[in-house]
Amino acid sequence: MTAELTPKQQDMLTYLKDRFRQTGSSPSLRTAAADLGISHAAVAQTLKALEDKGCIRREGRYSRTIHILDQTGDVDISHRQKQVPVIGRVTAGLPMYAQQEWDGSILVDAQLFPGNNLFALRIQGDSMKGAGILDRDLAVCEPRQYARDNEIVVALIHHEEATVKRFFLKKDHIELKPENPDFEIQTYGFGDVLIQGRVIGIVRSCGFSETGSGTAERTA
């Protein structure tokens, strides 16, 4: 940042950070004015000062989208976070749209995990430890109903059991391959497997409450 902030400017910056953590988006001028008890003009003026001092960046003159910048001028990681639902049970279709199936949520870096409608699934067991996916990890997935060879996917077996495995399409069957020599390759007919998503990364942590964060790693 190029200059020290006045108390009012610091209050505005703190408000923007808190607002984004709570809602995942920037407030409108009207909302900011009401929350802070100041006029629309005062909000606009303070935002302009924060932009001039390198604290925020706005997308266009009339856009309400605000990016909070860190000391290097890059978008601050706290402002890049987005909420991803943790799916407690995978069912046929696209489970990330059914809130009754949610088991809390996690915050991930939107730059590390781009895309819409992402969902997370908690891993059980160590059949994929060779791919760096461990027991109790959260696999972050993009919704997909198809798969390519060698992709790590979330597959629903017989409309009942969800599994995370590496996918291979054979001439007359589907193979779901673990990444652990202690586990055998699973073979299924074409009608027995429904692809629900592709694993794009993992979040490793000791545990999560309703919202949480951990060590995130991109896998694809």
The helix-and-strand class reads alpha+beta
Main sheet specs: 10 strands, mixed
Query: Which outline best applies?
Result: elongated
Q: What percent of residues are in strands?
A: 25-35%
Mean pLDDT: 79
- Alpha-carbon distance between the termini? 34 Å
The DSSP helix count reads: 4
Structural features, described:
The longest helix is centred in the first third of the chain and has 17 residues. This protein is 19% helix and 31% strand. The two termini are 34 Å apart. It has 4 helices and 12 strands. Strand 7 and strand 8 form a beta hairpin. Helix 2 packs across helix 3. By secondary structure, the protein is of the alpha+beta class. Strands 3, 4, 5, 6, 7, 8, 9, 10, 11 and 12 form a 10-stranded mixed sheet that branches. Strands 1-2 form a two-stranded antiparallel ribbon. The radius of gyration is 22 Å and the shape is elongated.
Name the descriptors.
alpha+beta; ten-stranded mixed sheet; two-stranded antiparallel sheet; 31% strand
Summarize the structure.
With 220 residues, the protein is α+β, with helices and mostly antiparallel strands. The chain has helices at residues 7-23, 29-36, 40-52, 77-80, and strands spanning 56-58, 66-68, 81-87, 102-109, 119-122, 138-143, 152-157, 161-169, 174-177, 186-188, 193-204, 215-218.
